[in-house]
Specification:
mainly alpha; Arc Repressor Mutant, subunit A; two-stranded antiparallel ribbon; DNA-binding transcription factor activity; WH-like_DNA-bd_sf; DNA binding; DNA-binding
Length: 150
Amino acid sequence: MRLTLHTDYALRLLMMLAMEPDDLHTVEEVARRYDISRNHLTKVTQTLVQAGFVESQRGRGGGLRLARQAEAINLGAVVRATEDSFDLVECFDAARNMCVITSACGLRGPLDEALRAFLAVLDRYSLADLISHPRALQRMRRLLAETPAA
């Protein structure tokens, strides 16, 4: 299984907001600091705002910040909100399944179990757990803040 860039960017954005909870950050700033697509990050931000993980203040002096404490943001919930599908193989989507061996295949059960285990592990962690190494993250934060605009 591979997470989409949408989820990857969402987790990076949430980590930045959690490391700097007193600051408002614009999409442009985050995109520059992480060297990622502004347009893609805008879509990610919309997803996170709609899901209630991030709040957005419009206007001059506006920006993004966490909508709740990092400890209250569950990693599994973020991944579920940002991934558009957990169809690991074709037969997970009954409407589009064209696999000719579906009726005799035993693969779906183990893959479904593995997916549930994957999500169960993520459910044990919060955003706060992702930023629990403050020294290394503070160094990285300084480096990201010093990155010049392209």
